[in-house]
Design brief:
- The complex is a heterodimer.
- Chain A is an alpha/beta fold.
- Chain A has helices at 5-14, 38-48, 72-88, 100-106, 138-147, 172-183, 198-201, 205-213, 229-235, 296-299, 302-312, 328-336, 339-345, 396-405; strands at residues 23-27, 30-34, 59-62, 91-93, 115-119, 132-135, 149-153, 157-163, 192-196, 222-224, 256-261, 268-270, 278-280, 291-294, 320-323, 349-350, 371-374, 390-393.
- Chain A has 14 helices and 18 strands.
- In chain A, the strands form five sheets. Chain A has a five-stranded parallel β-sheet with strand order 4-3-2-5-6, with helices on both faces.
- In chain A, β8 (157-163), α6 and β9 form a beta-alpha-beta unit.
- Chain A is globular.
- The longest helix of chain B has 10 residues, at 91-100.
- Chain B starts with a strand and ends in a 12-residue tail after the last helix.
- Classes of the chains: A alpha/beta, B alpha/beta.
- The complex binds iron/sulfur cluster.
Chain lengths: 412, 173
C-alpha cells in the first residue's frame, strides 16, 4: 500500500513503513521557541537539570510576539531568552527580524523530509515545504532542546484536493477558509492535512504557506504539500542539505478527502468568534469596518503586501489600516518594489516585522465595539486584546478592499 | 492521583487557550500565582475566585484549541483544578497537560449527565468516571503518559530518571 506524505517523511526517518496511531520517536531537524513560549521552555529545561542543548544550530529562538517590547515584564523575558541563547549557543533572531514561521524557511532551517517542531501552534506552516512540522508546548520543547528527539503519534491523513483554476479575486486564503468551514474547527484533530491538486501545484510558496499555516485551525497536526520545482526555487541557496522532491504515493490511504473545485470558490470571511464560522464576503457586504490588519504568519508575505498595494495604489484608506511585513527580508523586498511607499502614502500604518496586532499583546488593540478585518488566522473572542471587538478573517485582497471603502467589500 | 473526586465546573465546546489565559497576560510574566488569577477568565471572569482545590472542569469538544501556550494547562492546575474531562481535546493542549502533570480524560458520554455543582469521581487507571450514580467508561490513558503523570510531569520525570521514557532503544536512525 502506498504512503501519504506524512507517512513517507516519517518512514525515511525510522527506516520502515509507519502505521497511523503508532507512537514513534523522531530525531528533530529544527526546534523553535518564541517569546511567548521560550521563557517557560527555559524554566522547564533548567528544572530538568539539563546541562546542554543538543544542537545550537538546530535550536532556534525568535523574539517576534511582543517585538519590540512594550513593557518591562516582556523585556525581562526577552533578556532571559538572550542570556540562555548566549550560554547554550542557541540561534537567536531578535527584534525586527520577523515572525518565526517566516524566518525558519527563510534562514534555511526547513527542508523537504525534515522534522520540525515549534513551541507555537502555527508551526504546521512548514509543511508547505514537505517537512513534517508541528506545534508543541514549552516542556516538550525543553525535552527536545535536551535530547534532540521527541515522540509522535503517526497521524492519519485528511486530503484536501483543490483542482482547476481559481477566480481572479480568490486567493489561497479563501480556499483554506472555505475548507475550514467544511471540515470544522476540530474536524482534523490529530490528523495530517495534505493539500493536493493542480491548483496547489500552481501556487507560489507564499500562497501555499497561507494554507498549511491554518491546518491547525481545523485541529490538524501538520499541513503538508509535496515538494516540487516551486519549493526548490525558493529553498535553493538557503538550505545546506540536498533538496528532495517528496510526494505521497499514488495508492496512499487517506481517511477522508475533501474535493474543492477552485473555479467555484469565492472570497470568504471567517466570522466572529470561531474560525470555522465561514461565510462568503458577499453575505456581509456593506458592514462598517473600523480597523484592518494586513500581516502575520498567514498573510504578511511579499505576495500579500503586493496585492494590498495594488488595490490601494494612489488612493486613501477609509478604515484604520495597519500593515506588518512578515520579516526583514519581506520588508526589504517590499521597499525595493515601492510597495511600502505606496502603502504608507495610502494612509496605512506600516510597522516593524513581527506578529504585531495578531495576538493582542502589545499594540494595534481594537476598541470595544470595533469591527476588524484581519488577514491573520484566529478570530477568537479577545484574540487581538479586546474581548468586545469582532474580528473577521480575510484574504489580503479582501482586506485591502475593506480598508479602501471602510466597509466589507467583495474584491474585484 | 489515581482517584480524583471533585466538584464540577461545566463549559461548552471549543474553549480556546485565549479564553483559558488571554494572551495579554502571558507575555508579561511567567509567575503562576499572578497568571492563575486569570484562569478561564475569557469564559468565566470570576472562575479563579469561585473554585476550590480539587474541583474538576467538564467541557465539550475541542477543549484547549488554539495556541500552544503551556500557560493554559498550567493556570488551570495552579488554580486548583485536579482534572479536565471533555468530549475531546486539542492536540497540543493534550500533550502539554500531561507534561505539566494535569490529568485529562476524554469521555464524551459524561457531558450530558453532569452539571456545574455536581460531584464526580474519576478512576484514572481503570478508565471510569461516575456522576449521579452512573458510571461512564473512557479509553485508559497510554502507559507512558501515565508514568509521566505519576512522576509529577515531564520535568520531575527527567529529574528522577535522567532520561525520557520514550528514549532508549528505538528503531530510529
Ligand atoms: S503572527 Fe500571529 S499566529 Fe503567527 S506566530 Fe505570530 S501571533 Fe502567532
Amino acid at each position: 500500500m502506498g504512503m501519504t506524505l506524512a507517512e513517507k517523511i516519517i518512514s525515511r526517518k525510522i527506516g520502515r513503513v509507519p502505521s497511523p496511531g503508532e507512537i514513534v520517536v523522531l530525531p528533530i531537524d529544527a526546534a523553535m521557541a518564541q517569546d511567548g513560549t521560550a521563557p517557560l521552555m527555559i524554566k522547564s529545561f533548567e528544572g530538568m537539570g539539563a546541562k546542554k542543548v543538543w544542537d545550537g544550530s538546530k535550536a532556534v529562538f525568535v523574539i517576534d510576539h511582543i517585538s519590540p517590547s512594550s513593557n518591562e515584564g516582556s523585556s525581562a523575558l526577552h533578556k532571559m531568552m538572550r542570556d540562555f541563547a548566549k550560554k547554550f549557543g542557541v540561534t537567536l533572531y531578535d527584534v525586527g527580524e520577523g515572525i518565526c514561521h517566516q524566518l525558519l524557511p527563510e534562514k534555511g532551517h526547513v527542508y523537504p523530509g525534515g522534522i520540525v517542531v515549534g513551541a507555537d501552534s502555527h508551526t504546521c506552516t512548514h509543511g508547505a515545504f514537505a517537512a513534517f512540522s508541528t506545534g508543541i508546548g514549552s516542556t516538550d520543547m525543553a525535552a527536545v532542546f535536551a535530547s534532540g528527539k521527541l515522540w509522535f503519534k503517526v497521524p492519519e491523513t485528511l486530503r484536501i484536493n483543490i483542482s482547476g483554476k481559481m477566480p481572479k479575486n480568490v486567493m489561497s486564503k479563501d480556499a483554506i477558509l472555505y475548507a475550514i468551514g467544511e471540515v470544522g474547527a476540530d474536524g482534523a484533530t490529530y490528523m495530517s492535512v495534505e493539500f493536493t491538486g493542480d491548483a496547489v501545484k500552481a501556487m507560489s510558496v507564499d500562497s501555499r504557506m497561507a494554507m498549511t499555516n491554518m491546518a491547525v485551525e481545523m485541529g490538524g497536526k501538520t499541513g503538508l504539500i509535496a515538494s516540487d520545482g516551486v519549493t526548490r526555487q525558493y529553498l535553493e541557496g538557503r538550505i545546506k542539505v540536498p533538496f528532495l522532491e517528496i510526494s505521497a504515493d499514488p495508492g496512499a490511504h487517506y481517511s477522508d478527502t475533501l474535493e474543492i473545485e477552485a473555479g467555484k470558490l469565492e472570497p470568504m470571511l471567517s466570522c466572529p468568534h470561531q474560525v470555522d464560522n465561514v461565510k462568503a464576503v458577499s453575505e456581509l457586504e456593506g458592514l462598517q469596518v473600523d480597523q484592518v490588519f494586513i500581516g502575520s504568519c498567514t498573510n504578511g508575505r511579499l505576495e500579500d503586501l503586493e496585492v494590498a498595494a495594488r488595490v490601494l495604489r494612489c488612493k486613501k484608506v477609509k478604515a484604520r489600516t495597519i500593515v506588518m511585513p512578515a520579516s526583514r527580508e519581506t520588508y526589504l523586498a517590499a521597499l525595493e518594489k515601492g510597495i511600502i511607499e505606496e502603502l504608507v502614502r495610502s494612509g496605512c500604518a506600516v510597522g516593524v516585522p513581527g506578529c504585531g496586532p495578531c495576538v493582542g499583546g502589545h499594540h494595534g488593540v481594537p476598541s470595544p465595539g470595533d469591527v476588524v478585518v484581519s488577514t491573520t488566522n484566529r478570530n477568537f473572542k479577545g484574540r487581538m486584546g479586546c474581548a468586545d471587538s469582532s474580528i473577521y478573517l480575510a484574504s489580503p485582497l479582501t482586506a485591502a478592499y475593506c480598508a479602501l471603502n471602510g466597509k466589507i467589500t467583495v474584491p474585484e | 492521583m489515581d482517584v480524583l473526586k471533585g466538584k464540577v465546573w461545566k463549559f461548552g465546546d471549543d474553549i480556546s487557550t485565549d479564553l483559558i489565559i488571554p494572551g495579554k497576560y502571558k507575555f508579561k510574566t511567567i509567575d503562576l500565582d499572578e497568571l492563575s488569577k486569570h484562569a478561564m477568565e475569557g469564559a468565566d471572569p470570576q472562575f479563579a475566585l469561585k473554585i476550590s482545590k480539587g474541583d474538576i472542569i467538564v467541557a465539550g469538544k475541542n477543549f484547549g484549541c488554539g495556541s500552544s501556550r503551556e500557560q493554559a494547562p498550567l493556570v488551570i492546575k495552579h488554580a486548583g483544578i485536579s482534572a479536565v474531562v471533555a468530549k475531546s481535546f486539542a492536540r497540543i493542549f493534550y500533550r502539554n497537560s500531561f507534561n505539566i502533570g494535569l490529568p485529562l480524560v476524554e469521555c464524551p458520554d459524561l457531558y450530558n449527565n453532569v452539571d456545574t455543582g455536581d460531584v464526580v469521581e474519576i478512576q484514572l487507571s481503570e478508565g471510569r468516571v461516575s456522576s449521579r450514580g452512573k458510571t461512564f467508561y473512557f479509553k485508559p490513558i497510554p502507559g507512558f503518559l501515565m508514568t509521566i503523570l505519576q512522576d509529577g510531569g515531564l520535568v520531575e520525570h527527567f529529574k528522577k530518571r535522567g532520561s525520557f521514557i520514550w528514549e532508549g532503544p528505538t528503531r530510529s536512525q
